[in-house]
Amino acid sequence: MKRIIGTGLCLLVLFGYPMTVQSQTLPVVQRFVLNVDYSRFWQNDSTMYIEISTAVYPNLILLQQDSLGFHGKVELNISIQNKSTGAMVYANRYNVPIHLADSASLVRTGSIVNNTIYALGSGEYHVSVIGSDVLDRTRKDSSSFTVTVQNKPDSLALSDIELCSNIIESSDQKDVFYKNTYRVIPNPSCVFGSTSFPLVYSYMEFYNLNTNLMYKITAQIVDAKGNVKKQRAHLRRFSLPNVVDVTTLNCISISSGRYTYEVILSDTLGQVKARSRRPIYLHNPNVKAASAETIVTARAEFEGMTSDELAEEFRKAKYIAQSDDNNTFEKLSTAQAQKEFLEKFWTRIETEENGKSNLSRSSYLGRVSISNQRYKSMSRAGWRTDQGRIYILYGEPDEIQRFPNSGDSKPYEIWYYHQLEGGVQFIYVDLTGFNEYTLVHSTKRGEVQDATWQQLLR
To answer: Is the dihedral of CA 217, 218, 219, 225 positive or negative?
Structure first.
């Protein structure tokens, strides 16, 4: 295994603290945030390096202040488990120390970035990254994801795209961020724009190139409708079959939102040979959307909401959120960025064809409130129960049949929605006897289906 841990700085909106001489712990009013990202690169034909980058924010960490400055610490736990065998391949724990000389340093310092590198053979792996504030371990954040490692193909192949805050040429191989003649500083938040990083740097590796051909390399930022918002292309002939590519795009003229960053390798006739893509989030508050269709009007209801309240609202919206939405929101560390995200999120929900009629922010949150009143259990809030979820997604059932205890049979309910997919039903059983009804069968596509559900009544 090759393991590298490094530290760097980047700019983020921060808050200063008054200087005092006495030792004290400074209060933090916002939630602890850990940004996590990863990229995969082939080491050889059968092994890949997975680079896991993390970012923590000094202004979101409890700091002790004394005559020498500000001091704090974040503990990171990274585990990698083979999904097929269940074997724990790596389980590492290490501390990220934070030492800042004065309040000016606290304001200037954005995120502290760390990079760890692990060698993995082919297979599927579950990765868990947990960060906690050492001075208060109840303040923590985490990320988990599945990583697929494949043998390197014999044909043309591309690595993942590593989004970075800065890339410069370097010969200092002792630098923790040194990689293939470059100093590569990853941006685990994947957030770029006028308030943070106006330039998007990308690092990639190309494998099995034909040294006799001329290639066209295109890097572009694409919106949800497939429109190219920014593009940069150049022709290049490579002298080696395996090479590094570094590209820079200025993103400050693009309106805020979630986009796709894409790198395409094609021949001179325009035939695509390989491509790699990944999500990216842009935050340019001074740029208005280009057309009336994409203008997002600021919602007055978000004003005055704290970061924790905004996060709680998005948690309740998980039933209609996409995986990219979840990944993007986890990377947002300021209330303003969360507000802008939620404005775009709810506008998309309200304007897109989503199969759920008349679904708006107010109606959705109204259903959440009703679910909390009707369907709460001893262990869970109503919106988190099965009946709460179905009610939130589809509204009032057209018909409900209730079957109480009868002999040896557990109580159960059948909900009917006659206008949904030509008529569907949801069957819930009180499996525990504590009035918490579990969804055991449904005729709705994508829901749990169990033709033998009646056996659960015994």
So the answer is: negative
pLDDT averaged per 10 residues in sequence order, the chain, 458 residues: 35 33 56 91 95 91 86 94 95 91 69 93 95 91 92 95 95 92 94 90 96 94 89 91 95 90 91 93 79 46 83 92 86 86 86 59 87 86 94 90 82 91 92 88 92 90
**CB environment 132-166: b (16+ within 10 A), e (fewer):** bbbbeeebbbebeeebebeebeeebbbbbbbbbbb
The answer to whether 153-291 and 361-457 have equal CATH topology is no
Nearest to 447, CA basis, from 455, 439, 456, 438: 439
- Cβ contact 390:414 at 8 Å: no
CATH architecture assigned to 153-291: Sandwich (2.60)
Cβ burial of 418 (10 Å; 0-12, 13-18, 19+) is exposed
The DSSP letter of residue 394 is: H
The fold adopted by the segment(s) 1-152 is: Immunoglobulin-like (2.60.40)
At 171 the three-state DSSP class reads coil
Q: How far is CA 322 from the centre of its chain?
A: 10
Fold for the domain defined by 361-457: Beta-lactamase Inhibitory Protein; Chain:B, domain 1 (3.30.1450)
Q: Where are the domains of the chain?
A: 1-152, 153-291, 296-351, 361-457
Please report the sign of the dihedral spanned by the C-alpha atoms of residue 284, residue 286, residue 290, residue 294: positive
